Amino acid sequence: MDKLGDNVQLEDQTVGFRYFDARDLLGFVDGTANPVGPAAISDAVMIPESNDGSNATVVGGSYVVIQKYLHDLKAWKTLSTEQQEAVIGRTKSDNIELDDADDGQQQAHKTLATIEDASGGEHAILRDNMPFGSPSAGQFGTYFIAYSRQLWVVEKMMERMFIGNPPGLHDRILDFSTPITGCTFFAPSLSTLEALGDEE
After folding, report:
1. pLDDT tens column, 50-66
2. Domains in the chain: how many in total?
3. What top-level branch of life does the organism fall under (predicted)?
């Protein structure tokens, strides 16, 4: 912050932490569908070069979407483990995916947050969510952080969560987790950042 000086204004400071085996404060493993390995991450996260070279300034960059969610843990704990698992779409203890609900029924978070192409392949994003908590303030939650080469994928996830699929059947995790802030950023590649200010 000393180096940035008056060029930025601090809006929120949240200290996150790693919780057990990558679980969130709801008790479930977070980021299960993350791409694995450098090549897979690059394919999901980094914007590739186009055939015509028209996007040279954004190549290697990534869209970053963040949302800060506060959890109503008291209400969440009134649910049985089976009810919690139905909301998330995975088992709590061993992180096994449950079958999707039939069409037209309430979909689990896992299903609504999965965007597939026409052939059934998943559009992967990289989640780097962080749980946080302040016992003195009575606040506990998750800082959702997603990196993607295609911003529309994350936007579609949000649409399905908040509006529902089909519309009207929203993600039930939102009955217990409330977004209080959020923003979208573009993170340029390191080479683009290093070139800033260079004379032509």
Report:
1. 876 677 789 999 999 99
2. 1
3. Eukaryota
